Amino acid sequence: MTEQDVFERRLHAALVRHVANGPTEFDAFAFARTVAAKEPRRRGLAAALAWRRLAFPRRSWALLLLAGLLAAMVGGALLVGSQQRRLPAVVPPVAPSVAPSIAPSVAPAFVCPAGTNPDKPGPVDQARPVIGDGIAAMVFDRHAGRVVLLAQLLEGVETWTFDVCTNAWTRRHPEQEPGSPLSEATHTIYDVDSNATIAIDGASTWVYDLAADTWTRMRAAPIVRQWNTLTWTYDPVSGLVFAADTSELWSYDVETDTWALISAAPWTAGRASLAYDASVDRIVAYADSQDMWLFDIRTGTWSKSGADTPEVVCGMGWPNPSTVYDEVAERTVVSCGIPVAYDASADRWESMADDAGPFGVYDATNGRFVGLEDEAVVAFDQKTRERIVLLEPTPSVAFACPPGSTPDTPGPVDQERPARNASAAIAFDRRAGRIVLLAPSAGAAAETWTFDVCSNEYARMRPAREPALSGASHLVYDGDSGVTIATDGRTTWAYDLRANTWTQMSDAPAAADPAAPSLAFDPVSGVVIAAFGRELWSYDFGNDLWTLVSGAPWPGSAVLAYDASVDRIVADAGSETWLYDMRSGTWSRGTDPTSCAWGMAMVLPDVVAYDEAAKRTVVSCGTRAAYDATADRWEFMTDIPGSFPSSMAFDVANGRLVGIGEIQDGVFAFDLATREQIILLEPVRGRATP
Amino acid sequence: MDMSSLAPDAAIASTVQLAAAGDEVAFARIVAAHRADMVRVAYVVSGDWDLAQDAAQAALWIAWRKLPSLRDPTRLRPWLMAVAVNEARTVLRRQRRHPVVELTIATDRTGAGDPGDEIGQVDLANALHRLDPEDRALVALRYLADLDSAEIGTLTGRSASGVRSRLSRVLDHLRKELGDD
Hints:
The complex is a heterodimer. Chain A is mainly beta. Chain A has a domain at about 425-680: Neuraminidase (6 Propeller). Chain A has 6 helices and 48 strands. The longest helix of chain A has 22 residues, at about 60-80. Chain A is elongated. The model of chain A is unreliable at about 40-105, about 600-605 and about 685-690 (pLDDT under 50). By secondary structure, chain B is mostly helical. Chain B has one domain (about 10-175).
């Protein structure tokens, strides 16, 4: 007996002792009854071999085998002496010369019309589905060259298509749509030979005819277990959809609306993700986050990949990793975070770059993947590893006053208005076309108001909760997130005007001089920039994260605005003007020795705004001053009577600055181009002085 | 402990066929005969009796679903053991995403032989705990379920030589861990 034999014997004995005290009580009969009742056995084992009947008649098999043999002989003769090294496939692929005799091959994909440029981003101002946290399923219609998207949006279930040649979304308007609400289990698959998009959620099956723009309800899938275990693919040879859950593989024929049990699934637990891999004519199933199985639809047999299969584990709340076959690269990409690619013909895995993707659907027209990234559409070419933005995210949507509105006519003077304008802060909500105003109140919490710049009317919003900020609170509109950010240097709040809700976010960094914070929004990086005393910070609303950007060069404090004309944060620090380049992280000092000497701004430092129409940063410092950053020059407008606003914002809808007055409780507009001051809301007599 | 099959091949095949056809009594016999061993092999993988029982239960559900596809009914027991260890790996993986599995140390020395020949239970538990779950599964299948390398290979999709070489590495590791080198 060798030393190892002795050790193995001792190990065996130790293991037996190790497990000797396990639980033993168990009612096997009760368990068996429960199992049998919950999952009654399907009768007829022949169902498990349905592939024999649905695929090919027996005579075809004989022909197939004969043809395969001939092809193998010819192929073998050709390959003898060849230098080409082809690693053994997991299962021998069907000879190409044989496959067409069985069934039609994959239909050719739609070809983009001459003159179109699929790499040219689509119009950024187009209507598009905004999915956010909603549910969406998409698939590529290779006949039409369009991505079909079925999504649960705020307004309900919608069907959209995305043209991969023009990079344009189109909202479809079928008479009925699946869901309402759409199930999280919904998957879509494109049936090539039937030219139909199929949506399945386990409880119902729908078919979409793009040409007719109609959804038709079909027979429900027989596999209804856990929604997040269902997975689907399409076999272009048999023309059938294949669907699997934790234990079975089924086929669905949309032409006859029939489901058939094909095989028991070989994976023993958990979930799988299916894809049809044309390089080996197999359905590949990435199972249990660790195994790759291949199903030969023609013979009804499973085989397991011998390759070291990487573990792809999705985070909590995610279903299976996605598996998509790349027809050009001949790889099945498995992704959930960091993607990996499976080369079935070589039974080999390849790692991919961390930033590869997205892998939403495979665009057979352009031979690349297409996916959604928030409101943007992005393509990824696996061969060149190139990402192309097909549709930029929606820019901050500028609101326009509705036809017939009279923005130059003062609003009703007797309307309800904020009682205290002193220290009020404003920001312009570009999507809603309203000024959001946070005004101090007699209570601890501030009051939330909006001012409609089209009708010149205030509205008291009365959200369920309002921020309790110190007097020196400041607002800025975050064009990326569509919320207004408020901070007093200690706490941070976000106001969603559409939902009329304030949400308290992470605390702002403790400012050395919390009485004088100032905010600006950088639309390029999508973050709020804040000057807290002599520190510059950024706030990322999406991640609720404050980050120190830079120390500030000015001696005291400053007011900020984002100046789009030079893509810089302009800081007016009284006797000094500074510009901060967010892209390079560098400061430069304005050379014009005249700057807005501190007047009112000493007390009310938020009186600054960037005039997008005149391309000037306008500061109110007892008088008005405009800074032209491109010329590095200040211009003082002493000829214009000042209204001494407590806060200013740029009204995108009317292309002018709007100020909320402290000394007078009216609302004024100021057009820098015409130097005209317009009263939008007359002050109330007797309340002119706070 | 008797880890061997409890019935002759013909009886097993008959029971499997009945259970595959939906006979719940036949399935109950299978459960009664194999569940305890399934829990034990799952315990070697998971190191936790509760997880092991969960794994065995999940494996039996799978067994019910897949019995009709079992080609050789006489291979029922190895198949059940393989499903059980695989389930144990799955539940362990899920468990690891949340709390860390707390390894329970068996200290009972019932049936102990010469203490000098014994591998200490605490040492064994610790050594197993430090192994990769896949390696624990191999140990469970080889030294508790008494499957040979070819059987393990068939059930886990590996070659017999691949199983042997991996087992050899695991044994070397255990030998060092348990102070046997």
